[in-house]
Design brief:
This protein is an alpha+beta fold and about 150 residues long. Helix content is about 45%, strand content about 20%. The protein has five helices and four strands; from the N terminus they run H-H-E-H-E-E-H-E-H.
Length: about 150
């Protein structure tokens, strides 16, 4: 008696007996998945320009009042002159201060941030004060993958 095996049984036996092919196919699927994630279409995760940036000022050994007087107030005065700035919010602590500079709705936030950063760097601040300007990307990979 000649019994014919079904296609699914022959297909299953093929991959059971040839485990190397099974491993290669799994590796190819993983590589294709990693490639697909890294080259995901940008329309799925569009860039969202934020209308604010953060200025961090480190002034070692200074009290909150000293930082506010010597660093925060000059920065606030320098940036609020520009029409693009909506308002500034700051928080001073011992040794450091954080300023959040909110911009009015603008198309080119990067150019405005660069212009205001140059203005901040021109200020004559105390020699020990270090100023860091941080522009934040709203949709980095970690946020995008967190939404999935």
């Amino acid at each position: 008696m000649d019994t014919k095996e079904s296609f699914i049984i022959r297909w299953s036996k093929f991959f059971i007996t040839r485990y190397r092919i099974r491993i290669l196919i799994m590796i190819a699927i993983v590589i294709a998945g990693l490639w697909g994630v890294s080259n995901n279409q940008r329309q799925d995760f569009p860039t969202i320009p934020l209308n604010f940036f953060i200025v961090s000022a480190v002034y070692p050994g200074a009290s909150p009042a000293d930082i506010e007087q010597d660093v925060v107030i000059p920065i606030e005065q320098a940036v609020t002159v520009y029409d693009e700035v909506d308002y500034v919010r700051s928080n001073s602590n011992s040794n450091y201060s954080i300023l959040e500079i909110f911009l009015k709705d603008a198309d080119d936030v990067d150019t405005i941030t660069t212009k205001l950063g140059d203005e901040i760097n021109k200020l004559s601040l105390p020699g020990d004060a270090e100023i860091y300007i941080l522009a934040i990307d709203a949709m980095g990979p970690s946020v995008a993958f967190g939404l999935v």
